[in-house]
Write a structure and sequence with these properties.
22 strands, single chain
Length: 401
C-alpha cells in the first residue's frame, strides 16, 4: 500500500530553503558533533515575521533566522534532530522543501520539489521551555551597564580559531575539565586568554579590535560556541553583549544567527560535582539549586535543623579551597566582649575557627580541594566544632555591650 502523505494535512506549512536548512544543519552539527536520537530542534515565529530555528544543548543555545511566511505555524514545532539530516538529503537538487503535519497519523511530513516524501513521528513528551527562549532576562541584574562590543566577522572567526586550537602533545587525564576562556570587553578591544598550564602546556592570550561600550570580563566553556562561529559567513559584523556583572549568559549575535553561552567558572566545573559526590559519600546531601550556572556555594542541613554551607574559593595562585560554614548567631554587634569570647572559642576548637562578619558569627572549616577524599575527617571536625558551639547564639550576645 502506498501511503497518502497529503491526507489530513495541517492548515500550516513551512517552505524551507536550501540555505536555511544548511545553516540549521551546520549549527546543529557544530554543537552536538553527532545527532542524538531523542533531541529536537524547535522552529517557531520570531519577531517581525521572521522564522526562528532554535538548537539547545546544555550550556549553549544557538538560533538561526529566515524569512517567514503567513502559513508558518504560530506555535513552537519540535523537529527531531535526525530528521534535519535527512532533510538535507531530500533538498539536494531542488530549491526547497515543504514541511507540514498529518494530524491524524501524528507525523511530520516533508515534500521535496521533485515529488518525493519523507515522514517521521511527531516527538512525544517534549516541551518548549523558558530555557529554549533565545534571550533570557537576568533575574540578578544590578545597576551596572551591559557591556557591548561590535566586532568584524573576520576577527570573530580569528577569535574562534584560537579558542578551538588544542596544543599538540597534551596528555589528557580521565574526567579532566578542558580549559575555559577568560574574555574581556574593554577599550575598543575583545581580548581573551586560554590557560593550558594545568595540562603542562602554555597560556595563550590574544585580542582583536572592537567597538565597545562598557567593560566586563567573563569566563565560559568555549568549544561548542567556537565551532558554531566557524560555520558563519565572514561578511559583516557580530555583536557581543553581557548583561552586567551578575549576568548568566554572554550573547553573540549576527544578522541572521545568534549564540547564547552560559557563563561559568573553570574551577567550579572541576570541583563542584566532586565535592557534592564526596559529601554524599559521608551521608550529606546538598540542596538542589535552580540556576543553570554551577554554584560557588550550596546549602545542606545537619542535625535536622542546622543550616550549613559548602563553598568553593579560587585563590590568587589558582589553588582552590573548600569551606564548610555554619552561621552560629546573627545580629551580633562588634565589641571587645564579643571578640574576647570568640577568641576563647577558637582556643578550644581544633581544625575550625569562629569569626564575626557582617553581624554573623560563623564557624568555618577549610581545606584544599585536593583534600576532598578525606571528607569523612573534615566533616567530623566540622560536626564536633558545631557541637562545641551549640549554645553560642544564646550566650554570645551577652558580651555585646
Amino acid at each position: 500500500m502506498i501511503p497518502d502523505f497529503e491526507a489530513n494535512c495541517s492548515d500550516w506549512r513551512i517552505r524551507i530553503s536550501l540555505r536555511e536548512i544548511l545553516e540549521v544543519h551546520l549549527t546543529l552539527s557544530a554543537i552536538n558533533q553527532k545527532m542524538r536520537p531523542n533531541h529536537v530542534v524547535w522552529v517557531t515565529k520570531g519577531e517581525n515575521g521572521k522564522r526562528l530555528w532554535i538548537i539547545r544543548d546544555r550550556s549553549i543555545l544557538s538560533w538561526v533566522t529566515a524569512d517567514g511566511e503567513s502559513t508558518d505555524p504560530t506555535f513552537a514545532l519540535p523537529i527531531p534532530e535526525l530528521f534535519i539530516e535527512q532533510l538535507m538529503e531530500m533538498i539536494a537538487g531542488g530549491d526547497g522543501i515543504d514541511l507540514f503535519c498529518n494530524e491524524v497519523e501524528g507525523t511530520i511530513v516533508a515534500r521535496s520539489d521533485n515529488g518525493s516524501y519523507l515522514s517521521i513521528d511527531h516527538p512525544q513528551n517534549v516541551e518548549f521551555k523558558r530555557q529554549d527562549l533565545p534571550y533570557l532576562g537576568n533575574p540578578h541584574r544590578d545597576e551596572s551597564t551591559p557591556a557591548i562590543a561590535t566586532v568584524g566577522m573576520l576577527d570573530i572567526v580569528q577569535f574562534a580559531k584560537f579558542l578551538f586550537k588544542f596544543p599538540s602533545g597534551v596528555d589528557w587525564p580521565p574526567n579532566d575539565v578542558m580549559p575555559f576562556v577568560a574574555m574581556a570587553l574593554d577599550k575598543d578591544t575583545l581580548a581573551w586568554t586560554m590557560d593550558w598550564r594545568r595540562q603542562d602546556s602554555y597560556r595563550f592570550t590574544g585580542s582583536v579590535p572592537a567597538n565597545t561600550v562598557g567593560a566586563i570580563t567573563a569566563t565560559f566553556y568555549p568549544y561548542q560556541m567556537a565551532a558554531v562561529l566557524l560555520t558563519k559567513d565572514r561578511d559583516g559584523d557580530a555583536h557581543i553583549f553581557i548583561d552586567g556583572e551578575n549576568a548568566e549568559y554572554a550573547y553573540f549575535v549576527g544578522d541572521d544567527w545568534g549564540i547564547r553561552i552560559l557563563l561559568d567558572a573553570e574551577y567550579l566545573a572541576r570541583w563542584n560535582h566532586k565535592v557534592v559526590r564526596e559529601l554524599k559519600n559521608v551521608g550529606v546531601d546538598v540542596d538542589n539549586w535552580k540556576s543553570q550556572q554551577i554554584p560557588s556555594f550550596m546549602t545542606f542541613t545537619l542535625n535536622q535543623s542546622d543550616l550549613c554551607y559548602v563553598s568553593l574559593h579560587e585563590l590568587d595562585d589558582l589553588s582552590v579551597t573548600v569551606r564548610l560554614t555554619a552561621i552560629l548567631s546573627d545580629d551580633v554587634p562588634e565589641s571587645l566582649g564579643v571578640y574576647g569570647e570568640i577568641n576563647k572559642l577558637n582556643d578550644a576548637l581544633v581544625g575550625a575557627r569562629v569569626s564575626l562578619r557582617d553581624g554573623e558569627v560563623r564557624l568555618v572549616v577549610e581545606f584544599p580541594a585536593e583534600g576532598i577524599t578525606n571528607m569523612t575527617a573534615h566533616m567530623s571536625t566540622f560536626t564536633k566544632a558545631l557541637a562545641q558551639c551549640k549554645d553560642v547564639h544564646t550566650f554570645l550576645p551577652l558580651f555585646a555591650g
